[in-house]
Amino acid sequence: MIHSLEMLTKEIYSVNDFEDDWMMKEKVMKVLQIFNVEKAPDFPEYFEWALTHSSYANENGSISYERFEFLGDSIVGFTIAYKAFEMFKKMNEGELAKIKAIVGSEMVLSEVSKKIGLADLVLIGKSLNSAQLDELNSIYADVFESTTAAFFLNYGIDRTVELVSNLLSEKIYDAANKKIFFDYKTILQEYTQDHFSALPEYIMIEESGPSHKKKYTFEVKINDVVYGRGSGKSKKSAEQLAAQAAYERLKSI
């Protein structure tokens, strides 16, 4: 039987701990509920750090999720590849690679993160300005990976593969059956041609990170007006996220 929130709370933290930072402890409890955890983690602080964006960490002197996201990215990628390999025994390596790329994309992982409630738990600093808020989908995808790493470090690889498989199996199936379409650049182009008689323009405004882990940020302009911004691990994903942000903004106007 799954432990109640109160029971897990008593197992993990003392009363004094909660007096120090009730908000964070409550967020950790919610992550454990989302992941259907029955046993208290040995290292609950890993989940705290896995929820903390660098903007919040810098403002509050805490640890951010970057290292956990680095580890979680590999675990999620491995799990998708393994699950697809097991599910679709007649597919060749090229077809399996496409499934892995689609399901492991920032767009899909951010969607899952929002659906299961992880996105609501992320700690983001006040310094993140309105333009940077267009990067939220990238942050939500990162947190899916970082909390996966925190889960792995507490519960081991077998339970982690089972967890990620359960969360992503539907997306893996949809990707294999070509039910996932997220070419927002094409969608935005069609929209702007119909409504503005113009084409969107993509401009790279930032390139950061070490060579093995680059991060690109793009703006998309329509008639010289910025409508969206996106950041990703590749130029293509950053452009797609910028197009998504612009399209969603235009549809809300």
TrEMBL record:
Keywords: Cytoplasm, Endonuclease, Hydrolase, Magnesium, Metal-binding, mRNA processing, Nuclease, RNA-binding, rRNA processing, rRNA-binding, tRNA processing. The keyword Magnesium applies. Residues 183-252 form the DRBM domain. It comes from the Bacteria. Homodimer. Digests double-stranded RNA. Involved in the processing of primary rRNA transcript to yield the immediate precursors to the large and small rRNAs (23S and 16S). Processes some mRNAs, and tRNAs when they are encoded in the rRNA operon. Processes pre-crRNA and tracrRNA of type II CRISPR loci if present in the organism. One of its GO terms (biological process) is rRNA processing. Residues 45-156 form the RNase III domain. This is Ribonuclease 3. Belongs to the ribonuclease III family. Mg(2+) binds at E69, D142, E145. GO terms for molecular function: double-stranded RNA binding; metal ion binding; ribonuclease III activity; rRNA binding. It catalyses: Endonucleolytic cleavage to 5'-phosphomonoester. The active site is at D73, E145. It comes from Mesoaciditoga lauensis. Its cofactor is Mg(2+).
